[in-house]
């Protein structure tokens, strides 16, 4: 009996199918964006200018050592208490020029939100998670104050409208909302500085 020839498989359309699957997965796959800390670096300056003098009472210093112990405004503090301490510092209104500040008006603390600076000093051996927790609490303090003022002035929360605009789900006049967001940011400008890390 003669040998039977093995039937050939028509693979001509395999390349087309693979190409279609590749296009399908490229179109339907979502690529997640990495989220980081939103910080804008200052522009590069050609000549060194002497920085304007800042009163010591307008600086809120946060120091973190290698054991992740935090010293905030010369007091040993837990991360959970940092947000409230930052709010009290920013909202103090010590010189009386801030009409919207609701703080204690302590003359020994910050004059007004425009002059208040928060500086963070990290030890090189402190953990990244501690750094992120501190940054989150400080941003949370600014957001709390901005939410309060936007609620008072416009009847909506700064963080909610800002998020809705970023996601493209804001229903309303976007340009007007962006202008109002900028006005709120001017009331409580985010002045965070990072000191050189210690050896």
UniProtKB/TrEMBL annotation:
Q: Please give the Gene Ontology molecular function terms for this protein.
A: transmembrane transporter activity
A Pfam family for this UniProt protein?
ExbD
Source organism's superkingdom? Bacteria
For this protein, the parts annotated as crossing the membrane are: 12-31
Q: Where in the cell is it found?
A: Cell membrane
Q: Extract the signal peptide range.
A: none
InterPro entries from the entry? ExbD
Keyword check for Ribonucleoprotein, yes or no: no
Q: Which UniProt keywords apply?
A: Cell membrane, Membrane, Protein transport, Transmembrane, Transmembrane helix, Transport
GO terms in the biological process aspect are: protein transport
Q: List the record's Gene Ontology CC terms alphabetically.
A: plasma membrane
State the annotated membrane topology for this chain.
Single-pass membrane protein; Single-pass type II membrane protein
What does the similarity note say?
Answer: Belongs to the ExbD/TolR family.
Q: Which PANTHER family match?
A: BIOPOLYMER TRANSPORT PROTEIN EXBD-RELATED, EXBD MEMBRANE COMPONENT OF PMF-DRIVEN MACROMOLECULE IMPORT SYSTEM
Which protein is depicted? Biopolymer transporter ExbD
Native source species: Patiriisocius marinistellae
Taxonomic lineage: Bacteria, Pseudomonadati, Bacteroidota, Flavobacteriia, Flavobacteriales
């Amino acid at each position: 009996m003669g040998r039977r020839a093995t039937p050939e498989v028509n693979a001509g359309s395999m390349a087309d199918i693979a190409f279609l699957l590749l296009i399908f997965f490229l179109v339907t796959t979502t690529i997640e964006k990495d989220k980081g800390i939103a910080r804008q670096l200052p522009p590069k300056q050609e000549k060194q200018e002497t920085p304007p003098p800042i009163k010591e009472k307008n600086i809120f210093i946060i120091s973190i050592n290698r054991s992740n112990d935090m010293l905030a405004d010369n007091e040993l503090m837990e991360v959970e208490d940092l947000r409230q301490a930052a709010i009290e510092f920013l909202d103090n209104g010590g010189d009386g020029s801030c009409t919207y500040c609701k703080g204690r008006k302590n003359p020994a603390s910050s004059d007004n939100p425009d002059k208040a600076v928060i500086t963070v000093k990290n030890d090189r051996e402190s953990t990244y998670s501690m750094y992120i927790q501190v940054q989150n609490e400080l941003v949370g303090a600014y957001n709390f104050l901005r939410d309060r003022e936007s609620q008072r002035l416009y009847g909506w929360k700064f963080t909610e409208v800002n998020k809705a605009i970023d996601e493209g789900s804001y229903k309303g006049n976007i340009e007007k909302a962006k202008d109002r967001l900028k006005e709120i940011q001017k009331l409580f400008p985010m002045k965070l500085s990072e000191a050189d890390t210690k050896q």
